[in-house]
Amino acid sequence: MGEKKQRLSVGRPMKYGFLLEILEDEVIYCPASIVDHCMALNIWRYTGSDPEYIQRLRVRHSLARFSKNHGFPYEGDGLVYIENQAPVRGWFGWRWKVARTN
Questions:
Q1: Does residue 10 sit within a domain?
Q2: pTM of the entire structure?
Q3: How far is CA 41 from CA 6, 7, 10, 21, 80, in A?
Q4: Fewer CB within 10 Å, N side or C side of the chain?
Q5: In a domain, 6, yes or no
Q6: 38 lies in which domain range?
Q7: Do the domain assignments include residue 19?
Q8: Helix, strand or coil for residue 7?
Q9: How many domains does the chain have?
Q10: Helix axes 52-69, 31-40, angle to 10 degrees
């Protein structure tokens, strides 16, 4: 009776969670910069029938939902600057990793 039950994870597992494992703890990332970082390290390459930009968009949207669903601070930990784009809010790599394990 006094045994504590282990809490089961709710929902389906994150399809792109493996991308978060290679993030550096003290670097600020937005969803787009995570995809760019993983592609630069050759961690993730898309080989499906859809154009690459469509798949990149899907991953970015998934990561954006992840940040919202896990209660990341709205203002972010800082700004991420991507060439030819306005600065966007981002979060430290450690925050992405901690949220993935919870």
A1: no
A2: 0.80
A3: 36, 35, 31, 13, 19
A4: N
A5: no
A6: 24-101
A7: no
A8: coil
A9: 1
A10: 130
